[in-house]
Amino acid sequence: MPGGCTWTTGLLLLAACAKVVVWADDGDAVFIREFTLMRRDHLAEEPLRDGGQKPEDPSSRTARSEEDKDTLWDAWGSWSECSRTCGGGASYSLRRCLSSKTCEGQNIKYRTCSNVDCPPDAGDFRAQQCSAHADVRYLGQYHEWLPVYNDPDNPCTLKCKAKASGLLVELAPKVLDGTRCYTESLDMCISGVCQIVGCDHDLGSAAKEDNCGVCNGDGSSCRLVRGHYKSQHASGKAEDTVAAIPYRSRHVRLVLKGPDHLYVESKTLQGVIGELILDKSGQYHLENTTLDYQKLSDKEVLRITGPLGADFTVKVQFASGADSVVQYIYYQPIIHRWRETDFFPCSVTCGGGYQLTSAECFDLRSSRVVVDQYCHYYPENVKPKPKLQECNMEPCLASDGYKQIMPYDLYHPLPRWESSPWTACSTSCGGGIQSRSVSCVEEDMQGTITPTEEWKCLYSPKTAILQPCNAFDCPTWLAQEWSPCTVTCGQGLRYRVVLCIDHRGLHAGGCNPTTKPHIKEECLVTVPCYKSIDTLPVEAKPVWQKQAIELEEEISVTEEPTFIPGPWQPCSRTCGAGTQRRAVRCQVLLSFAQSVADLPDDECEGVKPATSQSCYRTPCSGVLGQGKESEEEEEGEEEGEGETPEREELHDWEYEGFTECSESCGGGVQEAVVICLNKQTREAADQSLCVSSRRPPQLLQDCRTQPCPPRWDTGEWSVCSATCGVGLLTRSVACTHRPSRDSNNTEALRDGDCPSPKPSPVQACNRFDCPPMWDTRDWGQCSQSCAGGFQRRQVLCKQRLADGSILELPDTFCPSKTPVNQQPCAKRECPPQWVTTDWSQCSVTCGNGIQRLQAVCRKLGEDGGHRTVDSENCSLMARPTRIRLCSLRLCENSVKPHPSILAQRKLYIQWRKGKKLQLVVGGYAYLLPWTTVVLRCPTRHFRKGHIRWLKEGRPLFGLPHLSITSPGYVKIQQLRSSDAGIYTCVAGQAQEHFVLHVLGSKQKLSAPESRPLAGVRRKDGQPDTASTGVRFQEPPISLNQYDSVVEHLLKLKGSLQSEKDTADKIHSSEKNRSTPEDDDGASSEHLLLIADPERLDEIVPSLSAGLAGLSGEQLLVQLLSELTATRGETNESTLHPPETAESSTQGPLLYKPKVKVHAPRPRMPVMIQRPRKVGAVPASEMIVHVGVPVLLQRPVTVELRCEALGNPEPSLKWTKNGRELRYNSRVSLSSSGSLRIQSPIKADEGLYTCTARNRLGSTSLSSWLQIKGGNGRNCVQGNGTGPNGPICSERKNSSQPVESCHGQACPFRFQMDPWSPCSASCGTGSQTRRVHCMKGPEGRSIEVESKHCLGTGRRPSDNRQCNLLPCARWVTSHWGACHGQCAGPGLAKQQRHVYCQDTNATKVPCRMCSGLQRPSSLRNCSTEACTLHWHVGPWTQCTATCGRHGFRSRQVTCAHRRTGKAAREHHCMWRPRPPSWQRCNIVSCGRAGECRDSTRYCEKVRQLELCPLPQFKSRCCHSCRNT
Questions:
Q1: Contact 23, 8 (CB under 8 A)
Q2: Are the C-beta atoms of 1497 and 1519 separated by less than 8 Å?
Q3: Residue in 93, 290, 115, 107 with CA at minimum distance from that of residue 188
Q4: How confident is the model at residue 652 (pLDDT cuts 50, 70, 90)?
Q5: Does the pLDDT of residue 534 top 60, yes or no?
Q6: What is residue 1517's predicted lDDT score, i.e. its pLDDT?
Q7: Which of 338, 444, 765, 852 has its CA 20 to 30 A from that of 814?
Q8: CB-based contacts of 144: which residues, under 8 Å, 6+ apart?
Q9: Calpha distance 500→509 (Å, rounded)
Q10: Distance of CA 824 to the CA centre of its chain
């Protein structure tokens, strides 16, 4: 390996306590394990000359904290540079122990740094450390090392594995600080120990990311999504989608149970689609996302930690067998979030203003701003409040007048939200919406309110433009209980009352009449109108028979097995005592078949009812054959016919059933009924016929023992709520339950537990119209807070009708005494307060001073007037203080500074294409076309906003590619030939010019004729002044003086034509890549050759005389060498002091270099160029810095100084004419490297070059030495050298006269014809011309062969390219959709795309079509909203036939003109709204004595018996005439 190590991350491999690499005799390196890796920039900043320790910078050590002062430690030192430049590194700080004893604690502490993501191509940090050992032999051979991650035992050792052999080796005991301990953790290794790092990148922090990936977040930036999927094999599809998981989702987990298989598809934001087949367990990667897939025997599990790098669609591929089930869960990000904006522009430019921030809804997916509705969709998103700050606090200049409005001015309120009244509610009940318009307004000092931009009001929340209204429930119909049937038997009618009840529980109108329940229906009484007593209902039978029937309650079939008794059969005897039987079956109801089934008796529980009982109809008469008697009975009767029974034997006491139960439920008591019974007839007899002493005892038994069901408990009716106009009776109705008979407490239950219907809690009452009455509203706010004000209220005449509606009537319908609508209020005395008066006098009598706003303490009296009181009464309130500047006449001894322009006398030549150049007025510029130029005009004592610009003496206006910015700059986008000219900056009476040439253009600049630059004096001796009020001065030198010099310099540079082609032609490669200059953002110095006009003025005379020969070439070579050297130094950012900058209005500016101390780094040598003249030196010496030509006219000692910078320090070497310089007693080298020549002679003339060299490279700078005088040979200074030495040319002394030529003695010259027209109008054509070789004077010259002109210089070209721009035209797309608010008919807008296209239908930059008229991309159109109009309905009948009180109304709605569909009213507000009511029948009510009605309410007046009142009788004469 050569003498060094290759290190890919900019780190050095150094030994710490041991050498790293020991070189063997054969040149191979022996690997030693103990070493430490350090960054190169951790080395000492510079070598110490004395070999001692580097002194510590006191400023780098912080002050000792209070904690350190109590210990023996010094303060902590400054933090070291970060161990990494990205991906998270470590930095440390040291402190030293101030005692000879041992200090407690650590002398080093760490923190994290460079916590930014590394670029994708940077590679893994641990892998870089392993690859650093690829050039070091291990076990005698080289290896390619791969990192070993997540070592559980010691994660901070550098363990690597050989790629080829799989050998696992610990290459270093410690990894570099900042290396991650584990791949899935932020913990990092510092000094070989794994340190905990939180998500906030702080050491030892316990901060964790929430499920959304936000450090210490609350989980509000995402949502949990759970789902369940079941495959459907029967659908016939081969695959199906399980879930679509959006971009940036996290913690995805899917579990599939079944025979199917999972696979994943992805789609990026750019539309790139990918697919991932999961065939075996392991890790997969898709769109920068890691997927963990586990395939088990009975299920598949897919886990993705995230965030997802694209939209993932998880699909299932069907397999044969049963259906599969997939359960999934993931956290979906909320992609629309609020983002705070920067501060808006200041509200004023000076004098103190304010500026605000706002919040915009940002789409995290597309990284663009969207409308606010997207963020309002998520309730988790809270819009941040705007911030307000002051700005532009400096006072305005005197020329503008001092601004009165300051931020602390209490009398100038901030802009505020102003809202219009709410529109009518969209619905009358049940919840509607009403809207209003809200705009930002501004109020000036005079109280005038004007609308302004919305952002000015964003410091406070915008008031709502929508609000809910009429949220109460709509009125509903409430039906009362039915009345009894109108008949007692058969079919009749029954009635009920139906009320419309509103949300307050009052009877009012507003219910839908189509849904009103019916108030009458037929009813049927089950009592037959003509029936025998046996078939009468229970109620019609005798009491004792009713009791008997009630004892035998009917039992119905249920779903539980139950004994069901059948009807009793007729009695076995027609007279006397007999027996009757019935069938009792065990039955059950089958609910699914709705049929009854018989079961065995043992299936039923309980006692089976009796199947027989005794019966007795009528006594037998003794006649045979009557009835079905048995033989025994017949015999008995025959035996007893002749006997008379005893009294006590014929009648006896017997029990005959039980009384009715004392309770209907919950357990009651019933008593056995004892009757005196005739034994023969079995009929009840009078109790006196039975012996009272033989009366049986009283028998009691329990009954109705089952618990009582819930029942309705109703209270007493209340008093009617209204005396007229329909009131309500109310009562309490509750569902209650008493647990047992012994309990006196009842429990309240739900209404559903009680049987339906629920008894009505309300009932209508007093259903008749009320007389008209006064309705008074609440009192309004007091007009004043003190000293007596007044408040008003609204008083209306209203009548409540029987249907619950309220009718508003004219005031004449109500009683004559109207309630007061105004009353006094706030009678307490007002406290005194400060009141501002006039401004005080200016604090100075001349110049600039201040004025204060005076304030006095005043008190408001009872009479409404103010009176001044002692200021102590206002001491508790802050006294208002306002100060403003005042400016009086100038003081006599003050001198107002005149404005001046800081111009720079420079000549700029652009030799390389670039994006942007910044130049300063006062010089010349030769620039390439299509370059962006910013022309600056620095001024003193003058506001930049008042700078004016002229071109060719005329005011300069903005063009599509030329603009004048607020700081006074002129910006020209993509320079073209028409932009060449003379630009003048005018600041007051000062002005400076700038001459701009465009390379490639043959246009010669000339002074404008209408407005000459030269200040021509009129006959009266006053200078001529342009209309702008500025006297134009003549430029310091002629406009085209340097054209030829610049053209020859660019030809010598060899880059003019190529740069023209690059600037003019648009290659396809320019769209895909940029030049290095563009990428690096090259500064103006990289693109320009900058020359001093003074330097050109020195050589132009010599140049003009020598352009025809080698002397001219030599001068140009030297000049180009000087300019290139200067540019090279500027490129290297050397400390190049500029020459004294001169201004047209002030003295020279001294140069003060700003030197910044940088950490030394290796750099190539750089020459330092000094000013041409050096201080004050003896007259016998000349000190010149290399790079400047030396011209000697007298014998002096010359010292050529050469200074260079570099790291390592460069060595200097001198050469003369390209050969090593030989030193002697006259030519010597000083200790500083300067070259001294004592009394130079002709032999010392030549090109002296100083070369600085170090290991990184070299650079050189040259100076020509020329001795002038006599008729000897002069070697013109320059940097050009020939093969045998410097190029010198002889020329005669300039003092000799120039000979004029006559006839054939005149020299040869070239003569050119005009260029022919271009062969193509676009797309690159060509032009030709003829070039002749002429001899003889002008006018009499003749053409000779071309060879005679070969000695006169380069032959002019006879062809050139022209019209280089491609052939292009404007092309438009179709018009887009019409959109926008409709402020009038046809004022919405639609857009289309307009672009420049060449003949091949390829888009090209718009500048290619700049010469053509661009079609419009925006036009007005008509939207659906603009087809809306006001739709008016018919007028209602007038409320009066005569008089002044009649009016009529109609419905006015905003509707679509074609469909008639209604819309919100604000859509039609662009045209006036038609009136919805108007007065009518405004005519006299006729002759006196004519009786007629003048209002339509007269029928109500008669019904309410209001005719006796005079005010009603006069207006309802006709209706009241018969009352």
A1: no
A2: no
A3: 115
A4: confident
A5: no
A6: 83
A7: 765
A8: 131, 134, 162, 163, 164
A9: 6
A10: 52
Query: Residues 1186, 1187, 1192, CA angle at the centre, nearest 5°?
Result: 75
> End-to-end alpha-carbon separation of the chain, Å?
133
Residue whose structure tokens are 């953790």: 185
Burial class (CB in 10 A: 0-12, 13-18, 19+), 811: middle
Q: Which residue in this structure is represented by tokens 């002394």? A: 1293
Evaluated on CA atoms 635, 640, 646, 652, the torsion sign reads positive
What's the farthest any 2 CA atoms get from each other in the chain?
205
Of all helices (H) and strands (E), which one includes residue 833?
strand 833-839
* Better-scored residue on pLDDT, 1057 or 485: 485
Q: What angle do CA 75, 77, 82 make, to 5 degrees?
A: 150
In angstroms, the CA 684 to CA 1154 distance is 140
What's the pLDDT at 496? 75
Residue 1387's pLDDT band, with cuts at 50, 70 and 90, is low
CB 814 within 8 A of CB 782: no
- Cα torsion 909, 911, 912, 916 to 10°: value is 10
Spatial CA neighbour of 556 closest among 565, 548, 547: 565
57, 950, 1157 from 45: Cα distances, Å = 12, 53, 11
- Which residue has tokens 């080395």? 43
One DSSP character per residue, 874-908 reads: GTTSPPP--EEEEE-SPPTT--PPPPEE-----EE
Cα(836)–Cα(1392) distance, integer angstroms: 59
830 neighbors 787 (Cβ within 8 angstroms):
yes
Check if the beta carbon of residue 299 is closer than 8 Å to that of residue 326. no
What digits encode the pLDDT tens for the residues 254-268? 999 998 999 999 998
> Which one-letter amino acid corresponds to residue 1380?
G
Q: How far is CA 324 from CA 229, 277, 314, 317, in A?
A: 8, 18, 14, 10
pTM score: 0.31
Question: Whats the size of the chain, residue-wise?
Answer: 1523
Lowest mean pLDDT: which of 226-240, 280-294, 656-670? Answer: 656-670
Please name the residue ranges forming H helices in 620-728: 631-640, 647-650
Partners of 736 in beta bridges: 711, 748
CA 1264/CA 1261 separation, integer angstroms: 11
Q: Which of 511, 597, 611, 619 is nearest to 568 (CA)?
A: 611
Buried b (16+ CB within 10 A) or exposed e, 397-425: eeeeebbeebbeeeeeeebeebeeeeeeb
> What residues contact residue 1412 under an 8 Å CB cut-off, 6+ apart?
1369, 1370
Question: What span, in angstroms and rounded, lies between the C-alpha atoms of 443 and 418?
Answer: 11
What amino acid occupies position 237? K
Q: Which two tokens stand for residue 881?
A: 């203080």
Any residues with CB less than 8 A from the CB of 875 and at least 6 apart, and which? none
- The gap from C-alpha 398 to its chain's centroid, in whole angstroms, comes to 41
Confidence band, pLDDT 50/70/90 cuts, at residue 1294 = very low
Runs of H (alpha helix) within 308-429: 373-376
Secondary structure element (H or E) that encloses residue 549, with its range: helix 543-551
What is the average pLDDT across 496-500? 77
Average pLDDT estimate for 1445-1458: 81
Compute φ and ψ for 233, nearest 5 degrees. Answer: -65, -25
Name the amino acid, one letter, at 747: E
Residue 979's SS3 state is: helix
Contacts of 914 (CB under 8 A, 6+ apart): 931, 1077, 1078, 1082, 1084, 1086, 1087
Q: Which of 11-25, 465-479, 1126-1140, 1397-1411 has the highest mean pLDDT?
A: 465-479
Cα dihedral 612, 616, 622, 627 sign: negative
Secondary-structure breakdown of the chain: helix, strand, coil percentages, each rounded to the nearest 5: 15, 30, 55
Query: What is the rounded CA–CA span in Å between residue 1453 and residue 1474?
Result: 9
